[in-house]
Design goal:
This protein is of the alpha/beta class. It has 31 helices and 33 strands. α2 (about 25-40) crosses α3, α5 packs parallel to α7 and α16 (about 355-365) packs across α17 (about 370-385). Keywords: Iron, Iron-sulfur, Lyase, Metal-binding.
Amino acid sequence: MSIYLDYLAEIKSREEQGLAPKPIDDGILLGEVIALIVDAGNEHRADALKFFIYNTLPGTTSAAVVKAAFLKQIILGVTAIPEITPAFALELLSHMKGGPSVEVLLDIALGDDAAIAKQAGEVLKTQVFLYDADMFRLRDALQAGNAVAKDVLESYAAAEFFTKLPDVEDEIKVVTFIAGEGDISTDLLSPGNQAHSRSDRELHGQCMISPEAQQAIVALKAQHPDKRVMLIAEKGTMGVGSSRMSGVNNVALWTGKQSSPYVPFVNFAPVVGGTNGISPIFATTVDVTGGIGINLKNWAKKTDGEGKPIINNDGNPVLEQKFSVETGTVLKIDVKNRKLCDENGEELVDVAAAFTPQKMEFMKAGSSYAIVFGKKLQSFAAETLGIEPTPVYAPNKEITVEGQGLTAVEKIFNRNAVGVTPGKILHAGSDVRVKVNIVGSQDTTGLMTAQELEAMAATVISPLVDGAYQSGCHTASVWDKKAQANIPKLMSFMNNFGLITARDPKGVYHSMTDVIHKVLNDITVDDWAIIIGGDSHTRMSKGVAFGADSGTVALALATGEATMPIPQSVKVTFKGTMQPHMDFRDVVHATQAQMLAQCGDNVFQGRIIEVHIGTLLADQAFTFTDWTAEMKAKASICISQDETLIESLEIAKSRIQIMIDKGMENAAGTLKGLIAKADARIAEIRSGVKPALAPDANAKYFAEVVVDLDIIDEPMIADPDVNNIDVSKRYTHDTIRPVSYYGGTKKVDLGFVGSCMVHKGDMKIVAQMLKNIEKADGKVEFKAPLVVAAPTYNIIDELKAEGDWDILQKYSGFEFDDVKPKTTNRTEYENILYLERPGCNLCMGNQEKAERGDTVLATSTRLFQGRVVEDSAEKKGESLLASTPVVVLSAILGRTPNAEEYKSAVEGIDLTKFAPPKSASAGSSSVHF
């Protein structure tokens, strides 16, 4: 009873916050709840019944195990509860999705009581989250002559769990709500600094946009009870920055439909739109929840008599409105004809892309992974019965273009494709199920991934996955009470599930808060691999990697598969010579700027960037692939030369071995297996059997961009342009400016060298610049704080061995201490160098931020409003992005440098060198590696 009384105290505390009782996931607590239910005269019995029926989480939680067992007793007549009849108990089991509930249903369906067995069989027919052990029980029972097993398998072979669901409505009425103007980051929908509450869906829902916006949405729903609220990014793209399942969950919580009356705060089917559509990774997340994502195209470029865009004084195209979607506008989605219409039925825009046959299936099933599991279940049942599965699902689109070669991504998808027509070569646009080789889960979405795995009743990682990693980098900065409560539980769950974990649940090895992308880049040991990770910056420089929501990550972990169309590609090549005073980060920024100048529009959006960057090793090339998330690309592929790839794989092997030496290996020998795979790949390359991945000469691209290195003569800065008169132009990554634009006068309040965009060479650059400045000026004084966070502990170990860490320590006013980590966020900064713990630090924005209203110059990737720095009452916070030497010099000067100051400061410093593959020389790789 003591745990139940603690739960009542928690309920009272939540009431003060306007929150309902937290859903129960603990089996011990639910055991006490059941004891109260059985005690007919207990004063708490009525509340206990409500908690049991309506407030217990399903799936494989320990509470679900206890709930399923109790419902089994009721169904079998062992226990009688007047309010829960055997029929109602079966209904409750049907809403528990899988795991213990399916086990109970199978126990009863395959039992001796024929009448009850038939009823349980009918419920089983509605379930899709069955795993091998469950399906094998049905197969064995069939072979033993069990009639119920035969009946259930025949239903599965006909996919009745799908066909008997209601169809998507022919017409959906919506009322609009403008969430913001310009690109909308998922940080607006689910702020990073509220990451700790993401698994508490009702509590986390309170952080979406603003309380005023939430009230406005509630008011719209009250005014339009027959319509669904469509959340819109006016003059922008919805969901940029990250997939963020919590963002979609929040939108669904406020605007969607309840998934089950017996599962609180789990909603589905949100409707979102954007003038420029939906960000690719966010669109995948919308699919996971059976939602609708619409490209509104409600603003268009104004053209002159010759059809050319009219440009304003700032050099931007003038936009004109095609139709209004201001808040409160009533629209109709003609699903049957795939058109968006006004209230009177007049067509506004074609929305066929939002209602493909596959997306319609997701909407009908309520989620994309219900379709994945359903297809697998149907195939198993048909094979077991020795029959052909009933054609139910839309056939995968298989596009083959005779005489056309393959791009790099087309080659990878063809190599990893599952269930396609044998011998058929597939090109872009084909729908493909693919094997996933590497999976990454990060710590602020990992809690949700664990919930998703529990909800889909998964208990162990798929044997198809070569390796998977659970990071601790997003909560590395501050070991506060929230992290202490959440992270050990997450690490234990993922470790038991079969992942390599940053923190050891047993406390044996040192906590490795290394940035997840760096670790995934190391454990990816095949340039033909497919990687899925719970972060938009899952962008490896080997293989092709896709940032994904927590649900897609869970699906990849559970099944070893992912489903998506083969994306189109944009080819990026280089010409000219990189200036010695330029850093490769400047080449990355210039790529974005030159692409926009050459193409007019962002041709990278939603596509693969195939970058021919063969002379850079994996760590350095990652700087390019990492930035492609901000280019709004679906993913990126590095086309590397044979010897460069071999050297990158050797570095990866050594780092994996370090993980083994530190005790991070698991019982399955995952890390040793990756080293063996790397050795095999190196042997293939050296023998000529299978050279480094390269496209065919006659491959077809959506566009080709040639980056001219000769014209990159000064550092480039990505500017959020916070005061642009056109709100839609603020906080995008498209405003790339040379350092001379600022005239050496822009005040810098804080510098940050860190995040996944930096590598060991960047840390060495910091040390070299400090030495040079001391030599020139006799001392080093910071006129602005400089925060430095190495991406990994391995890098720090190497810096210590090479003497660079001593230099950094010499000039630092703070150095992290793993024995006594920080327990509170830093809110103010002195003009000193801070050596922070490896991890995301300021880039994540969930723990520490710059002071409000600061102008930050950072090496990171995030310039969105409120991410790295929030606004103050007097001034907008702004996060400008630049190379490491620019950031360091700006912190020392307290302002942006002019071009000459910059060139003088980096003279003699070994910046990241790069030369286009055709002119590569033996010395084109940085000496740092």
